[in-house]
Amino acid sequence: MKRIWFLLIFCCLMSTSFVMGEDIVINGCDTKKEIELSGDFPSNNDRRSLKKPIKYGVKLGGNVSYFSGTKVVGDDRKPSGPSSLTCGVHAGGFLNYSFSDLFGVQIEALYSMQGGRYKYTKIVDLEYKGTLRSHYINLPLLLEVKPFKFPLSFLAGPQVGYCVNRSFYGYGIYFDKERYKNFDFAVAWGLQYALTKNLTIGFRHNIGLTPSCDFNFTDTFEGKSYTVHYKGEHNKVLHLSLGWVF
Predict the structure, then answer these.
(1) What percentage of residues in the chain have a pLDDT greater than 90?
(2) What tens digit of pLDDT does each residue of 133-176 get?
(3) How far apart are CA 129 and CA 73, in angstroms?
(4) Fewest CB within 10 A of the end CB: N or C in the chain?
(5) How many CB atoms lie within 10 A of CB 79?
(6) Rg, the chain, Cα only
(7) Alpha helix (H) ranges present in the chain?
(8) Residue numbers of the domain that contains 191
(9) How many domains does the chain have?
């Protein structure tokens, strides 16, 4: 009887060792295969879906801007060159949607202070100068391309803007803001890098395609009336910003 009990205990111990050995072998296999056997391992598409496709946040930064030159038609004057640089700020929010690991789209609504500085010398030691500041609400729609494993992306797309106010600071230069157009259409492109999960830094270049200045000017000189057409002053803006993703 004792031998029978001994044999039963021995068989139980052997079967337990066999099962534990099987577990050890399975655990020694590739983890992905082990989870696949249990049906819990996510596929590639599932893993991508775990990432948040929609992100939104705010951004704040500084601008460096200027105007392109102005063409004059109907007069012997040469086209004027671009204005000097002036500094400003921008702030607003953004919404980013990722179609995949490679492509996404980003929509922004930004307040932007931009413009240019002018300086003319007509008589020796007599200068005419001033700064034109334009306050825009800009709405860029940008395609985002993420070709690298590290969080650097490229953005490019159209931008529409509307000038809500203009102001001129200076002396000796005639300024009439009614002669300026408020609507602006531009092309924007730039880079964006994620410093952390929430903090981003970005560089942007906006190239205006529509002239800010487009009007006829009529004047009388020595009893003769003449009309000239001014056109130009496209917005050119560089901006550097920090963004926070919620």
Answers:
(1) 50
(2) 999 999 999 999 999 999 999 999 999 999 999 988 876 566 67
(3) 24
(4) N
(5) 12
(6) 33
(7) 2-28, 31-38, 44-49
(8) 48-245
(9) 2
